Structure formats: C-alpha cells, structure tokens
C-alpha cells in the first residue's frame, strides 16, 4: 500500500532586526498565495496551477485509490481515519511514543456483498436506460 504525501510551500517569516533604524536594502518578494481549503484535515491551495486541476494527476490518483493501491487518510484531532477502497476502514490514533492504536470500523468482503445483493435484489443499483437524442 503506497501513501501519497503532498508537500506545500509556506512563507517563512524573517526575524525582526535588532536595531531600531534598520531599513532593508530591498523589500523581499512575497509570492501571492490563495486562501487555503481544508480537506481531510490538511490545508490545500486552490488555483489554476494546483495539482487538483491537472486532469492526468487527478485521473491517476483516482485510479490508484479505486484499484486499492492507495488509501485515503484524513481526520482532525485525536482520531484519524484510513479508508482503503474495497478493503477496510480503520480509525486510529498515533500516540506520543509513535504507537498506533486502531479500531477496525469495517472490512469489505465481495462474496458477502454479492450474497446480500442476491438476497434482496432491491439493493442492486438500478440500470440506467440509454437515451438517444438527435438534433438537426
């Protein structure tokens, strides 16, 4: 299982000068940063050049998650969550000593799922009817 980590660039504050009459020779350039979005407990930046707007990266990420090669991690505070599509959902906490305490919230079993569907066909997703529209 592979975990993807996105490293974000942050503005570094320069220390205040000790002298009262200190004037910097040149103003430092500050990159314009868009307001952060909070997703899964992490701050993400939204913009035209962000990874979230790159179709190839989005498709690759979705494929890795849906295939079960990668899991989704999230949560704020004491408990965090690990969602592995088609496998399991785990609630966990990492203690100060680095030890991980886990609670298994669920496991996906394809055979059990198919048996459940067969027992109650109403649970099956409805098949979409194809429609054709022609314009001249």
Automatic annotation (TrEMBL):
Domain Protein OS9-like: residue ranges: 70-126
Region (Disordered): 1-32
An individual GO BP term: retrograde protein transport, ER to cytosol
Biased composition (Acidic residues): 15-32
InterPro entries from the UniProt entry: Man6P_isomerase_rcpt-bd_dom_sf (IPR009011), OS-9-like (IPR045149), OS9-like_dom (IPR012913)
Transmembrane segments: none
CC annotations in GO: endoplasmic reticulum lumen
One Pfam family here: PRKCSH
Function according to Swiss-Prot or TrEMBL: Probable lectin that binds selectively to improperly folded lumenal proteins. May function in endoplasmic reticulum quality control and endoplasmic reticulum-associated degradation (ERAD) of both non-glycosylated proteins and glycoproteins.
Alphabetical list of PANTHER family matching this protein: ENDOPLASMIC RETICULUM LECTIN 1, OS-9-RELATED
Protein name: Endoplasmic reticulum lectin 1
């Amino acid at each position: 299982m592979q975990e993807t980590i996105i490293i974000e660039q942050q503005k570094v504050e320069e220390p205040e000068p000790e002298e009262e009459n200190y004037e910097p020779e040149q103003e430092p350039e500050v990159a314009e940063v868009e307001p952060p979005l909070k997703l899964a407990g992490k701050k993400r930046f939204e913009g035209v050049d962000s990874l979230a707007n790159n179709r190839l990266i989005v498709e690759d990420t979705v494929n890795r998650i849906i295939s079960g090669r990668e899991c989704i991690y999230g949560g704020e505070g004491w408990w965090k969550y690990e969602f592995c599509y088609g496998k399991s959902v785990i609630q966990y906490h990492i203690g100060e000593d680095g030890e991980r305490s886990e609670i298994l919230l669920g496991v996906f079993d394809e055979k059990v799922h198919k048996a459940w569907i067969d027992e109650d066909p109403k649970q099956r997703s409805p098949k979409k009817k194809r429609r054709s529209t022609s314009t001249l």
